[in-house]
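## Example record

The block below lists the input lines for one assembly entry, exactly as stored, with component labels intact.
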Amino acid sequence: MGWNVLGALSLPCMFPWPVCGGDGCFLPHPSFPQQPRGSSFPSPRRALQARGCRVPSGGLRQVAGAIACSSRETDMGEVRKGWQRLTPPSRPGAGQDVGRSCILVSIGGKNVMLDCGMHMGFNDDRRFPDFSYITRNGRLTDFLDCVIISHFHLDHCGALPYFSEMVGYDGPIYMTHPTQAICPILLEDYRKIAVDKKGEANFFTSQMIKDCMKKVVAVHLHQTVQVDDELEIKAYYAGHVLGAAMFQIKVGSESVVYTGDYNMTPDRHLGAAWIDKCRPNLLITESTYATTIRDSKRCRERDFLKKVHEAVERGGKVLIPVFALGRAQELCILLETFWERMNLKAPIYFSTGLTEKANHYYKLFITWTNQKIRKTFVQRNMFEFKHIKAFDRAFADNPGPMVVFATPGMLHAGQSLQIFRKWAGNEKNMVIMPGYCVQGTVGHKILSGQRKLEMEGRQVLEVKMQVEYMSFSAHADAKGIMQLVGQAEPENVLLVHGEAKKMEFLKQKIEQEFRVNCYMPANGETVTLPTSPSIPVGISLGLLKREMAQGLLPDAKKPRLLHGTLIMKDSNFRLVSSEQALKELGLAEHQLRFTCRVHLHDPRKEQETALRVYSHLKSVLKDHCVQHLPDGSVTVESILIQAAAHSEDPGTKVLLVSWTYQDEELGSYLTSLLKKGLPQGAT
Amino acid sequence: MDPECSQLLPALCAVLADPRQPVADDTCLEKLLDWFKTIADAGSSLLLLQENPCLVTLLCPVLKPQDLSPRVLAFLLRLAGILAAQEDCFQHLQQGDLLPRLFGEAGPLGGAAWTAPTVRSGWIQGLCSLTQHPSALCFLAHSGAVDTIFSLQGDSSLFVASAAGQLLVHILGLSMQAPAEGHPSLQPAHWPACAQKIVGHIEESLRATATPQVTQALNVLTTMFSHCHDPWTQVLWVHLSPLVACLLEKDPVPAAHSLVDLLLSVARSPVLSSSSCGLWDTLAQTLSRLRASQAGPLALGILKLQECPKALRAQAFAVLLQPLTCVLEATTQAPGLPGSSGPGLQCGVAAIGPVASSEACAGRGGDPTDGELPLAWPPGSVGGTADAPLTAGMLLPSKAACVGLLCQTLAHLELLQPLPQRPSPWPWAPLLSAAVTILRLCNGSATPTSDTGTHLCAFLAGCVRVQRAALDFLGTLSQGTGPQELVTQVFAILLEYLTSPDSSPTVLKKAFQATLQWLQSSPKPSGGGDLEPHAQLFLRELLPVLPKRLCSPCWDVRDSGLEFLTQTVRRWGGQAGFRHALLASEVPELTEQLLRDPESYVRASAVAAMGQLSSRGLHIIPASPGHPGAQQKSLLEELLHILSTDSEGFPRRAVMQVFTQWLRDSHADVAADTEHFVARVLRVASQDLDWEVRAQGLELALVFLEQTLGQPSSSCPYAMTPPAAAPPSLVAQALQPFCRVQLFDFAFRALFDCDRPVAQKSCDLLLFLRAKTASYSDQQGSSSGPDVASLEAALQRWQAGDQGQPLGDLEPEAVVAVLRSLDLEGLRGALAESSDHAEQSPLSLLQDMLATAGILGENEADCY
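Predicted structure tokens for the full assembly:
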């Protein structure tokens, strides 16, 4: 008995359903490397100026829609990416999309959902991912081992209360401490806007947000969190927004890294993303700027400050619609520093009382900010703004210049819209949109150049104020993505959050440079990757001693072939000698012999024929033990040869040859030798 | 169609048809389709095409699909399907040979565009919309589309594959509707060709050796039996059931999950519930063939059926209970040592024997005389030891399998228990015993002596997932009764979890919830009054534990503790025993401290808890330690401080809720000087940045109005109405307090609040007020004075968006006059509309798409 093969092990990873979305801070993606930096293309600022500033719709983060399935080319299975609401029989869709990041990973028998985002562009149930694709596998809580949220933007966490409190997921949700703190604020902000605008009854409530947050388990950076005995996760710094993290998911020797959104260059308040050489089986990376080499952020910042300064100098009012927390704080630091340096007196306001809240969280999570902020924190907290004051609604009517940060960021409700309506008619004023706006919002309209807006009650609002678009999004560009792939050294890469054509370019680049497979699934497609998991096997002492007795000491650098019997018991593997295996299993050894008949033309008696065979073999096989036994049979090692008379032809003898499978080579050789006949002289 | 939209449509069609013009994202195209669907549903699609020939022109470029982007191509396919859903429009499009070129071989089907999942999805959806009439069926038959749909069932895109299955069901249903006048043929061989083809495909798939194909067929059948209840479906089931039964002979059973779904959908179908279909036998066979984790959902489904043979129900219930049986048996197997296991486990088994008394097992909701399941625990599953190795083996293969199966079982039983069709009598006692045992295994307090029990202990020790599921189930079991000894054990294990430092925050939350459920269901003593002695004893033991939880470093634990406290005080705050125990504990003091918690959620819960404690007279203001004579700030002041200064909305909203409740209940602090209280609260609330706080401020104002002027008059036409209106002087006098608390300033300003719900609330309030003062204003006639003019001017300013100064002192006469002149009904109608109706209108969509399309190209080129 030799090897006991237990069957091929193939543990697939499956990646269904990511979709991506805009968190409100995107620029269009130029083709990479269409133009080198410093080429003759105008800067975004100049380009926007020249056209009276219109937002490019290509600037929003779009998911690859019409992407050919990679499985056909690679025979690696399918790719399923992004899901949409599918209420029979209508409304499927496998196209590109905005929002609703949601990826399901099956790894080593564990199911993990990565992000649970919402779609800002819809007001009906299409705004949330269609979880019925998971619920058809049984109860959500039974099927999913955990949910991981990469950061607090709503396109990554907006559907969470719906998922946990309305659809019924009752398992653990993992996110970093800052995300846990800020996430409910944004969810609450969004809920308030949704209810305010539409009076929605069928929507998650404040209590639901709280109950959802109670299911959250907060993690620290680089802390290995054991979800259960087999599944572990680890967070890495991702930049992008406060608390954003990349997550490594590991089951046994298999692992996946999900980047979420990340930024490989530090900005005013955050550091650069970093990951160790964890060599995952798969890296799922965002590719918002798949083909973009971004210009210096300093340049965009200078443009922004110049614009604001010019407007204030001419006595105008500047409105900057922002979302509650995130990019707004970066812009605040920027303006605060500029105001201090230039000794400007025009007031800056931040609406909705979020300034204190932001300060609180940035102070609390100071270790998540960049080095500069951490250093200066001892002397001065960068988030204790001297020039930025809380806004009161009555201030909007005050004469003279001012700068106001107001929510929400797309000018679709609340205070920012109210202020916009007041100030829109004056050409001295300015609105700066620092992020992407969905269709239908006032923000979207003014960025697409519309100047006469129909408001409620058929009122027409004429927009005379200056409209600017300045993206401050913090995503890794093509160079950054390549850098991260180089850092993590994955075996495979999967691109999400990008536009098909541009992702294709990056895919080729990754494949060429890193010699790894790169996938870019379309919405609704699944990728299955075969992996080679290493399974720990215990080796019996007896077997090891036997091997060592042969003079071969174990050497970690030189893998060796070790023969034995693999026993699986209680989910453990052990390699033992075949004798031990037989003993342990209480089995008797069976012997397997091959047999063959060879016909010889020989009219002599059987005993004589046997003797002739013996003589012949003795002369040919000098190194082997050839014996002639008293019963007339001949043996060569384990091979047994007997001569018998032919039943019909007395001139022919039949040689019965049999051998064990261990001596198969010799047995075959002997058979072929005997088939050639005996030499005439042999006696 | 709106004429303005009609004007813009040609330009948009031109943009969409032009491959050089990149269009807006998919969201816009999706919304555009929504709009076309609304128009088509509301009228004639043919007319729409005739009035807007640009739509036909738009569909024509499909002749060269390679020129179009996949998303536009998918859009056109879906649009064509929506339009062709009406037969006359379908014929119109057919005349132009448009449909074959879109959906036939000549279309995108064979081309490069087909590789895009979005195009395949558009093709399927287009066909699904189109297949609404017999002409469509003929078209499908001739175009060979059905074969393509078959192949798309295995598509790489989840959406396409799923939609393909649904489309097959739709086509089958429609083709069988055509000859529906007569009784359906007993032989599918006599069915329409299209139906025969689909049924043949399903048969072939069911016979296939590849599991994905079997799954596809089962899913199609599940969808069909779930949605179509025509008589022919019975014929189909009779025809196909042997093939389905064949699946059960395979080892392992392929596509078990889909098979369970199918069998349950068949069992639920009103036309298929007769026993002649052999369905019950198949279900019974399936229950015995599937693995425990696969059989659980089937067992639950069977038990939820309205009508089902008793034997099958008993079998299903036994399957469902099997894991718990295993747990109980494993934890009590102590050969030769009957007393060595924990006392709780012993008790559990004592109660689950096959001859367990109906008194112990019948719950409140159960009917012991029903006789459906005469034994508390289904026969054969508990009591004997013959099944023990089998059931134990079911739980023991691995920790993951054990945990998964137990969680699933507990969740299934939790779902089943409240249903009227649950097995009767419901075995409360054994289930309680099992839940308690599992919780003990999880926290290590069980000491089983058998090997299986030891294994279970190792698997379940510290397992949060099982703890959560068991506590949920334990909470649900509070609806029934068990032997007092078991109830004592329940309280004991709950106390253990609430006390244990090892309990995770999520487990603690569940433990609090379960505790509350058990306390609420605890029977009241016959004499009324206080809590049942056991519950009272438990609460006394719990109250010293609560402070530890209120001091937990985890915010969620502190919050869950406060939520629990609020509920218990609301329920038992008036009972002497509870009051005494609570006042003797540190709980009230700690709760007050939590008003200053760093977490806003906790602050909000502390506000609610303090509000409740104060309402029940359980908040005693302690004397300041430094100055024995001086008292600390009153709770009212403390809450007002939170309302004015807290940076988060949750605590401020919680304060408003407490204040409104205090006003309703005439809380002592409020009743002392209600006017002063209302004035102070409204002054702060009206300035709040959170619209929900402002809205709640108006709610408080409304309560004040109602208390002063009386409840709103009943809308019942038969209700008695007071014959005479109050004299003007009295009304003016009645309005004076509102003027003094500056209620009108807040309400009028809120009428033009930028947040719609605030304006709506204000509108309701003012309408109520106007109704109350109608008689007065009738008698006074139109009033015009300087006050009225200044108020009207202020209203105009506010409507224009100016905030301006407060109104100052108003005279009631001016208020009444302005109330009369305001079109409050009109305003209420306008506010009732969603505030984004303008931006979500089709016109807005067309304008946005056109505006964006014009600039896309430029931006693409010149960024970086």
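Residues 674-713+725-843 of chain B form one domain. The two ends of chain B are 42 Å apart (CA to CA).
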